[in-house]
Write a structure and sequence with these properties.
A hairpin with a 2-residue loop joins strand 6 and strand 7. This protein is of the alpha/beta class. It starts with 7 loop residues before the first strand and ends with a helix. Helix 10 packs across helix 11. It has a twelve-stranded mixed sheet with strand order 2-3-1-4-5-6-7-14-11-10-8-9, with helices on both faces. It is built from 20 helices and 16 strands. The radius of gyration is 24 Å and the shape is globular. The longest helix has 27 residues. Bound molecules: nicotinamide-adenine-dinucleotide (NAD). Nicotinamide-adenine-dinucleotide binds next to helix 9, helix 11, helix 12 and helix 13.
């Protein structure tokens, strides 16, 4: 795609997704006027959309719509398209040269809104509504480079500077994360970190202090956005300590960081958690932008606002919720990861795909390799983006881990116990979670799926059997101490089918023992 000056920001999405109000809000933030395609069609025809449907049928309307939309896209600016505009192949092809922004509404919300308003010709019949919804969903997925939640007036205004920057950067995709305590863009693609100095977002601080993983810095320095100073951290769990946080906080003070400055967290999950914690606590909280450089961080830990450090007594025992101002993930930075780190990170991809189900699971189960350097760049970016959207969607529903967010612990209950029993040295986190996933699938009674995941892990060089010297009793005792245990026992995340995780499930002692013993096989 060639860079063209008049790339249009085109809002797409199903009926009643809030496209027009999002387009108005984004246009206002960019100091321009939006154009509504349906209003333009009505003005050209001198009739309402309903009257055109009546007189010319849907085919007549679609013909008019295609003509008008192609013209509007050429004019540039901000436009809102009708829900069915993407059914036209020519419109979809044209959108590839612009920035399609999808207002992603769930089916029930859309129906509730549509059925209240009988002026919409296609909103009178639930069966027809469902059929259209199913048919259009993949088309929105196909054309959209940016995804906003529905009713996104505020999000669209805040996202506007980022959307503006994405117009001329076709390699980048954006998903808008919205939680109760903050909303922010997650941008994935080659060169994503370079947006930081380029984007005209008034919420961003003017000065940045980077806290950077030393190995990531050595291999990927070009992806670190400009910063006043760079504080280096050694990767690995050993750095997630209060002592290290104190060292960094004091270094920030010595470097002269102020309340209106921001921190760039450049590295894997360790640096993301540690730098995020420093940002959450420095002068009672300053902004942080996450620039993740490991698979774990790009598909999971950078999103969602959980920050913290470990105590000698237990992992992640000190921390704060602190949502980032943005997450900027360049999958190209993953190619320098040590092979074992990349493979262990792949387990989080498998976990996320199992939670999401559908297309993501189909893609992940078919991947030829768990090594980013072996994968097609577009394929890798699409998988990272899909994982980011899954995590963002889960966190949006439950920022503080009191309900739905628990699905992200799939495989982690037994996984953490294996990790702890092995003294954190025996298995990498991801490797232990892989074993935990196998146990969780056994507990779910999903024998075929367990076998498929076992085969997948094995194909990518990950352990599928527990080391013979790790006692089952010690692992069971560690499960019982799991920090997520409540007064009435440990709640498991189970999954019978991809895409359908169930939280807070009770599991009998005998079943659990059998699932862990099976890992010996
Ligand atoms: N906050 C959350 O929601 C959340 C979620 C999942 C995991 N986590 C945390 O994430 C941590 C694990 O993260 P991780 O697996 O990324 O480990 P990590 O941050 O230690 O990185 C793994 C290794 O890769 C190196 N590295 C990083 N980027 C590199 C690059 N581009 N090229 C070469 N080497 C590179 C690091 O130096 C390190 O040695 C754990 O502490 C876990 O608790 C947090």
């Amino acid at each position: 795609m060639s860079a063209r000056p008049n790339r249009t920001i085109a809002f797409v999405g199903f009926m009643a997704a809030g496209k027009s109000s999002a387009a108005r809000a984004a246009a206002a933030a960019l100091g321009t006027e939006p154009v509504d395609a349906d209003a333009q069609i009505e003005a050209d025809a001198g009739r309402t959309v309903a009257e055109i449907f009546e007189a010319e049928g849907e085919a007549g309307f679609r013909e008019r719509e295609e003509r008008v939309v192609l013209g509007l896209l050429e004019r540039g600016g901000v436009v809102a398209l009708g829900g069915g505009a993407v059914e036209s192949t020519r419109v979809r092809e044209a959108l590839a040269g612009h920035l399609a922004v999808w207002c992603d509404v769930d089916r029930e919300t859309a129906w509730e809104r549509v059925s209240r308003n009988d002026r919409r010709p296609l909103g009178r019949d639930r069966g027809e509504f469902d059929r259209r919804f199913e048919a259009r969903l993949p088309l929105y997925e196909q054309v959209a480079r940016a995804v906003l939640p529905s009713s996104a007036r505020e999000a669209a205004a805040l996202a506007a500077p980022w959307l503006d920057a994405l117009r001329t950067r076709p390699a980048l995709r954006l998903a808008w994360a919205r939680t109760r305590s903050g909303q922010y863009p997650a941008v994935v693609g080659e060169g994503a970190p370079s947006l930081l100095p380029a984007v005209a977002d008034p919420r961003l601080p003017g000065r940045w202090f980077a806290i950077a993983d030393a190995a990531a810095l050595a291999a990927q320095r070009g992806s670190l956005p400009p910063a006043e100073s760079v504080l280096e951290v050694t990767g690995g769990e050993g750095s997630k300590t209060l002592a290290e946080a104190e060292r960094l906080l004091r270094a920030l003070a010595v470097a002269g960081a102020r309340r209106d400055d921001g921190v760039i967290a450049f590295g894997g999950g360790v640096v993301g958690d540690l730098a995020g914690f420093c940002a959450a606590t420095y002068q009672r909280g300053i902004g942080v932008v996450q620039v993740p450089t490991t698979v774990v961080a790009q598909v999971d830990s950078a999103y969602g606002g959980k920050t913290g450090v470990d105590l000698p007594e237990a992992k992640n025992y000190v921390g704060a919720y602190h949502q980032p101002l943005a997450v900027l993930a360049d999958p190209g930075t993953l190619v320098s990861l040590p092979r074992e780190e990349a493979a262990a990170g792949f387990v989080e991809v498998v976990k996320t795909a199992l939670i999401a189900g559908g297309e993501l699971w189909d893609r992940v189960r078919a991947l030829p390799s768990a090594q980013p350097s072996d994968l097609d760049r577009d394929e890798l970016a699409e998988i990272v983006f899909a994982c980011a959207r899954t995590k963002i969607g889960v966190v949006a529903e439950d920022e503080r881990d009191s309900g739905r967010r628990a699905v992200l612990n799939l495989g982690h209950t037994v996984g953490h116990a294996v990790e702890t029993t092995g003294g954190y040295a025996r298995y990498r986190h991801g490797e232990a979670v892989g074993l935990g996933l196998l146990a969780a699938l056994r507990l779910s009674g999903a024998a075929d799926l367990r076998e498929e995941v076992r085969e997948l892990l094995s194909r990518h060089g990950l352990p599928t059997a527990l080391a013979s010297d790790l006692p089952v009793d010690a692992i069971l005792a560690a499960v019982a101490r799991d920090k997520k245990a409540t007064a009435d026992g440990v709640g498991f995340v189970l999954l019978e089918r991809p895409g359908e995780p169930m939280i807070g499930r009770r599991v009998g002692e005998g079943e659990l023992r059998a699932a862990v013993e099976e890992l010996r096989a």
